[in-house]
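Work package 3, deliverable 3.1, input record:
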Amino acid sequence: MASDPARLAAIRVAVAGALERFLAGQREVLGAIGQDMLPWIDVMTGLLAGGKRLRPAFCYWGWRAAGGADCPEIYVAAAALELLHASALVHDDVMDASDTRRGLPAVHHQFSARMAAAGIDQAAAAFGAGAAILIGDAMLAWTDEMYHGSGLPARALQRGQPVLDAMRTEVVSGQYLDLVNQVTRNDTVASAMRVVTYKTAKYTIERPLHLGAALAGAPPGDLPATQSAASGRPQALSVPGTCTGYGLPLGTAYQLRDDILGVFGDPAVTGKPVTGDISEGKRTVLIALASERASVAQLRVLERHLGDRGLTEAGAAEVRAVITDTGALAECETLISASVKEAIGALDGAPITEAARQALTELAVLATARVH
Amino acid sequence: MASDPARLAAIRVAVAGALERFLAGQREVLGAIGQDMLPWIDVMTGLLAGGKRLRPAFCYWGWRAAGGADCPEIYVAAAALELLHASALVHDDVMDASDTRRGLPAVHHQFSARMAAAGIDQAAAAFGAGAAILIGDAMLAWTDEMYHGSGLPARALQRGQPVLDAMRTEVVSGQYLDLVNQVTRNDTVASAMRVVTYKTAKYTIERPLHLGAALAGAPPGDLPATQSAASGRPQALSVPGTCTGYGLPLGTAYQLRDDILGVFGDPAVTGKPVTGDISEGKRTVLIALASERASVAQLRVLERHLGDRGLTEAGAAEVRAVITDTGALAECETLISASVKEAIGALDGAPITEAARQALTELAVLATARVH
């Protein structure tokens, strides 16, 4: 058994290969409609080349945890989650009017530029947004197509279907609640945590694990349909219960790390503009913790800069100082450590394979490391 | 056997019931995430209450054509197409910045208004667009969930999957090519016809028929994956071949009728603003025919008004006059008649049930009538 960093690399290679083959097939399909459809494949290829492949990795280890054997089909089913995620990113970038993604111009900008380059400025921005919405729709539909075309037996796919369904509903719900928090300037820790539960913890870790476990035959009755991080310990004695006990706290830790990197991270490493999270006015748990602890003067600093599209580096530095001075940063780090510990603890004595226990322990550390 | 108008009414009732039960289930799922998710169900209920249910009707008759027996499950699978279509409409309205849909404010406006009513004007429009994108995503994902939860046997669903896949890819492709035509002001009849083939003819009629036929067990080998209206007669001796031979010309006729109604229709009947198609600059076949036949002066009229968001009724009247005077309107009517005749002719001697032949003949007339 290779240690996890090597194993994760192997998963990444297999997932990349599966995506490449799937897109090659779709290139044929789109090309038959018209050569002018092919830019879609180029744009998707660029987008899908990036990413940490965390969701497929957790899906794979959910499968292995429940006793599934290593086989080509599980990588294809797991890779379908990358299409789902890419769809969410493209639509997210339209909604947030983001400029870049994974080191490339956001998809809507790529299509606007295509028209602008053809000498058509007028309406190029609307065209870019429209194209991005449609490409996101295509990748969302293709999630399903790739999943059902993975070659796994029909019965396995049927077992996984409710998990895939739950996952998709939860992620759009989490994104919507996030939007609501942003527009209503809701800065309570509880509402930020609810967004984390649905938009990240379930979507990135718990559900991919559940999906893999269900595909491998873990009894679906154990799958808590609407278990949230706040509702206490799930049943740790089943595979899905273990996935929840591990996935929800780890997912929270993963998002908190992302919150910190979004404000304090090195843009060269994160691939995001350093002022992005602040200027977009994201109501993260980190920001909520700072708001709760802020003095009147500190609160005024936050209110002035959060959501300011013209944010300067000086303004960002002021926000960072508030986050540090209120103790919010330190508390976030404490929460991350405690959550990772809780996640790893959930693996103790759990009814999963030894290989999965080892891999999931290492993945917990990798997913929440200070730089990744 | 009831005559088709009555049968279509029965299909509509069954489809509405299936959607109502599905949304009741999703209300539970969303309510468990938070009560603040429930406006989604209200908005979807309003949206899904409208519509002619043509896609489910064609899916149902594809099933019956291939020998499927009337049963509750087929209505559920067919109703899933309404979710797909509602998703496309919501996203379309965001892309086109449309104000109304099916007599209600467009979904993005409904959500903008919700925030504006709560006293939050700033960013309300962006919030509305974001919410609409996410609701469209949810309905696109739920298409799949409803289809797979229809209760039809797993083998039947597997047979239908490639058709559902093709249908989703084709409709987003058609929408994209439509956007490209709009932004590049491409006004050739050929490019407008290609959009009609993918965005309407396949999506609204051919593929729903194919889906029903595949679910009922029609051999998938006969299914022409990328058959287009232009590529000649399909094999009329198989059920899928018949669906194509009937569906593509009928779908073209259906769209041409819609083109005419979009410019000449009574807003009280169509539910669309009378200047909508012109001010959105839609590059329809009707417009393409007019452009091809226009004099220099007439072309200048079209160029001045197409895509003019501030279009007046006087401007619209000028465009209507050009469409009539060039003979484009009359040619469109001729094309509709010929296409309907071709569609009905494809049913002659086709290997489908007598009930389906009768229903499809009547549906062809209903779908392309002057007012509907």
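Residues 221-236 of chain B have pLDDT under 50 and may be disordered.
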